[in-house]
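sorry for the late reply, my laptop died twice this morning and i had to redo everyting from scratch. anyway the thing you sent over, i finally got around to it. pasting the sequence first so we're on the same page, its 407 residues, then the predicted structure underneath. double check i copied it right bc i was rushing
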Amino acid sequence: MHKKRFYIFILCCLSLVQITFGQNLTKEHTSFRLLSTKTNFEVGNEIILRFATSEKTAPVLYCSNNYGSTLIKANTKFTGLATYTIPSHISNKSGVVNWRVQSNNSSISGQLKIVPKSIVNSMETYLGPPSIQAGGNDFTMIVIIPTDDLDNPLKPLVPVTLKKQFLSNESTTEIKTENLIAFRRIFSPNLAGRMILSSESFGRNSKEFDVNVVPAIPTNFTITAKRHHSYADGNQITSFITSIIRDSLGNVVSDGTYVEFFIKNKKQAILKASGTTIQGVAIAQMVHPDKAAEWNVKAYVEGISESNSINISYTQVIKDFEVRFSQKNRIITVGPLTSFMEQMIPDGLEVKLTVFRDGKSIRKHVKTSREGYVKFQLKEGIYKNGKYHFTIESAGITKTIEAKRLW
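ok and here's the structure:
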C-alpha cells in the first residue's frame, strides 16, 4: 500500500516537471518570430528578413545555398525587431536558400526561393565530339544553357531554336530547356563534309560551331605499279599507287589515311613501304633491287581493308664483271660494272668481298660503286704475306678466286 502511494507521488512529480518544461520550451521558441512573409524573389533583388524578438541581443543568421554557407549579422536592433540583409553573392544566384537563426533561448528556420530572370542575356553552348563518322550511326551532342545577366540558367521549358547547315541544306528545330539545359543529339548524314550549328532564344544567338563529318572506314581497293624500266639496277624507283580509297557510302577517305605496302620476294623476305592518302590516293616508293627478282605486292589499311596482289619482275642488268689484282695483289679492282645499255651502272651498287685463309672466312669488306668501279685495298698490317682465297659478290653474281698470293 505504501509502495503504491510512493509510485503515484513520483508520477505526479514527473508530470509537473514535463508540463513546466513544455511551457518554457514553447515560450523559448516563440521568443524569435519571422515577420517577413515573402519567400519567392527574383535574382538581383534585395532580400531582407525581419524578425520580432524579445531578446536583448540579436543572434547571427546562418544562410546556405548550393554555392556555400555564410553567417549574417543583424543590420539594426530596435526594440523587439531584428533585420538581416541577404548578401549579393547569395541573392544573385537562383535556387533554394536555407536560413536559420539560433540563439541561446530560441531557434527558427525557413527557406527562400530565388528564381532567375526571364530575359536571356547569353547562350552558353557546348558541343562534342567535334568530329563524327558518316553513315547515321555516330552522333554529336549540343548542350545549350540560356542564362540571364547574372549567369543563372533560366526557368524550365524556355524555347530554344537549333539551326543547322550542311552542304546545301539548312534547317531549324525547336527544343525546350529541361533541368536547366536544352540538348539535342545530332546524328551524322551519309555524306562527309562540315556541319555548322548555332542556337537562338528570345532573340539572343550563340556563336557558330563546326562539326566535321568524316568518312567511314575504308573498303577494299586496288593497287598498280609504275616504273621507268624493269631492270634490276639498284637505282631507279618503282611507285606503288592505290586507287581512290572510299568508304561503303562512296565518300573519299580522309587525307592522311595510312596505307602500308608489303613486298615479298621468292625467298619470302618482306620489304615494307608506306604512304598516306591525298584525295583518297596513297603512293609508296621502293628502289629497284640490284639483281633479278620477283616481287609480290599487297597493300593494307591496317586492320580495316586491303588491296589486290600484284606481281612485278625485275630483269638482271649486270651479266658479268671483271676482277683485277695489282700492286702485289693487294689492290682488287672490280669493274667496269655496266648496265642494260652498256652504260656505267649508277653510283651506289653494293659489292662485297670475303677473304678466306686456310678454308676459313677471316674478314668481309662491303663497298659501293663509284663511276662503275669498286676498289679494295688489302693492307699489309692486316693481311700478312701468303695465300688467300676470295669471293666477290655483286648484282646476284658471285666470283671465286682461289690461291692468290699476297706479298
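Helices lie at 2-29, 88-91.
thats about all i looked at so far, will dig more tmrw
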